[in-house]
Amino acid sequence: MPNKSVTLLTIPFLPLRGTLVFPHMVLHIDVGRGKSVAAINQAMMGDQRIFLVMQKDIENEDPILNDLYTAGTIARVKQVLHLPGNNMRVLIEGEERAVLKAIHEDEETWMASVRVMPPFNKSDDNPELQALRRLAKESLDGFAEAGNRLSEDLIKSFKRIEDPHELVDVIAANLIPQVEERYALLALEKAGDRLEQLCVYLAREVRNANVDRIVQQRIRMQVDKSQREYYLREQMKAIQEELGEGDFDDVEEMREKLKKIPLNEEAREKADKELEKLSRMMAGSPESTVSENYLDWLSELPWGKYTRDQLSLKRARRILEQDHYGMEPVKERIIEYLAVMSMRREADATVVPKGPILCFVGPPGVGKTSIVQAIAKAMGRKFVKMSLGGVRDEAEIYGHRRTYIGAIPGHIISGIKRAGTMNPVFLFDEIDKMGNDYRGDPASAMLEVLDPAQNAAFRDHYLDVPFDLSRVLFITTANTRAAIPPPLLDRMEVIEVASYTEEEKLQIAKRHLLRQQIAENGLAKNSVTMTQAAIRKAIEGHTREAGVRSLSRTLAKAVRKAAVEMLETGEKKLAVTADNLEKYLGPPRFLRDKPEQQPLVGVVNGLAYTEVGGEMLKVECAVMPGSGKLALTGHLGDVMKESGQAALSWVRAHAADYGIDADFHKDRDIHIHVPEGAVPKDGPSAGVTMTVALVSALSGRKVLQDIAMTGEITLGGRVLPIGGIKEKLLAAYRGKIKRLALPRENRKDVAELPEYIQDAFEIHYVSAVGEVIGLTLEEQE
């Protein structure tokens, strides 16, 4: 027996391309290669047997041993039909399996040595083999029930086979589609292994066949439903035409229009439902008008439309500098955003990045709104603006539900529709001016809009479908942070837009404002000129603001006066100088108070930050006989009054250090007044100023008037940092102050100011109120 198992048979062989032959299998094979034809002829001269083996690469014309699969089938050539071109068609029948061992070198034909696989020996039969045969035959029934086209006669013929090898061969040849799996069954030698593997493949094929059957049934049902709907719709169309209610074409037109729009899944479902309702309504009814308006809104939104961003940093810088001087933090943030988008675009050309949510905070007139328009132009995006000043109803943001008569979407969706793109630059102007009372809380409604984690599925009350706002570049503006609710502020990246220095205002007037007013008033270019000294004088004497709106109106007045003079005198050009400025603008409206030359008791120069910029703030303190009352006047807010209380407590605790009667609070009244009482004032930064005023008034020591100060104090006497440093220093610069006392921790803020502003002062950085008193009070005689 061992010797028989290794006996090799030398036989012609035929390499097949993509065809696997099993024993008991009869088929035609077309033969065209020279060696293949020779191998067939060689077989026909012998016992008509030939070894059929599949080659791995079907493109290979002259395969070697490694290019062929190991297992194959010895077949008998039944018939040869010669075709034109030395080709032939051969009818073969598989007889037994064999293993390829070697290929004989022969230039004329293909010869190989093969080992024949032993047939099944009935003495090797056992219960396990019988169970596997039974399972394989039962799988045939499942295969037929799953809808596969197997004739009953074919199944019966399979079931009559008892030889396990023959059973595997005929089932694999007819039912297993994958070539790799068929080869695996051909190559296995043991009957048990072959039957077990066949059962695994059959179980999978039965399962797949069941899935295919279910999918086919579902598809058939959908097709039947579509045909039914089409038939009914055509009937309805005919009926409506007969009744003279033929609005059906409009419904079909809207249906086709919506098909071309890339709606999201929920919007598509909503639109289909609304179209079905509309198709059943009588034309002209109120309900049909509501549905038509809804579908119009849904179809006119820019679903999937994006503006391609202009990512050239050089171009963006040029456009941002074109109409705006200064504002470097804002410009740099936009340049950074464009740079990041450019890098992401290089990595993925199809990406549409999410937009940041920015908040520009600064005084009125500094160009916050106009810079946003320049940003949209620089990026090549559409621009949409919504003013939030006085908005009290959240329906302005979210829209009204369709249950209300005349309902429309909110301003967010309306703005996106106007823009015609899903990634415009969207400006919310004056976000700190939104109302919040019993009529509504729109600030809370803005939380979803300005949250990058939520606005990808913004749901307007009117549309009631999710709409992606994550690609919109939202920018908000405000005059002060204090009025913005903290949850809303937390969602935005705040960029401070500081007040303009006088030098910046001068440059803005020269580069932009004067040219703009000359053009708007119809005068020829350069027909009116203003000297630098005249512009400075106009800034100092006729404006008091953080921005340049008032300056623009002042220059407009000068240009109009010049236009009148040019018409009356026939002059073509006029020059406005510092000497003749009063002729065009009249006497100065504002006179800058110069600091007192002589030291005064109880009068201290403070610095304040208001919504319109920085201001000099004199704090006056008077002491008189009384019962220990403290009066704080000058339209002061609660925080500022508390600073006065804290200052008084500190002075009482340290009265002995400055020669003050320890019982002054029992028999003296103290009055602290901040002039310009009609102007509201608040904040903690006047604490150090009030403390110095109290010490001066109670001790009788005079306060030097060439120094100004700002800072919050604690009961322990520490001086804490404050905000608005740039605006406060600009106010001190305008007021001709020479020395400043500032909190030590604000040194970093001073470093951001222009050098000519810093060089104008002798700045003392302090950390304790005692240091300030030492700098400001004259020594006691």
Our count of helices gives 28
Stretches where pLDDT is under 50 for at least 5 consecutive residues are 1-5
Largest sheet: 7 strands, mixed
Question: Could you say which structural class the secondary elements and strand pairing correspond to?
Answer: alpha/beta
Trace the largest sheet across and list its strands: 19-20-18-17-22-25-26
Question: What's the rounded overall pLDDT mean?
Answer: 84
Overall spatial form: elongated
Q: What proportion of the residues form beta strands (DSSP E)?
A: 15-25%
From the N-terminal CA to the C-terminal CA, the straight-line distance is 133 Å
Total number of beta strands: 26
How much is the radius of gyration in Å? 47 Å
Helix content: 40-55%
What's the arrangement of secondary structure elements?
Layout (H helix, E strand, L loop, with lengths): L1 H4 L2 E10 L8 E6 L2 H12 L3 E7 L15 E13 L3 E18 L6 E6 L10 H19 L6 H8 L4 H12 L3 H9 L3 H53 L4 H12 L5 H15 L6 H15 L12 H11 L4 H20 L9 E5 L6 H12 L3 E5 L7 H4 L12 H9 L5 E5 L12 H8 L8 E2 L6 E2 L5 E6 L7 H5 L2 E4 L5 H19 L7 E3 L1 H11 L6 H21 L4 E3 L4 H5 L14 E2 L1 E8 L2 E13 L4 E4 L4 H16 L10 H4 E6 L13 H13 L2 E2 L3 E3 L2 E2 L5 E2 L4 H10 L4 E5 L3 H4 L4 H4 L3 E5 L2 H8 L5
Parallel strand pairs: 1-3, 7-12, 7-13, 8-9, 9-12, 14-15, 17-22, 19-20, 22-25, 25-26
Antiparallel strand pairs: 1-6, 2-5, 3-4, 4-5, 5-6, 10-11, 16-21, 17-18, 18-20, 23-24
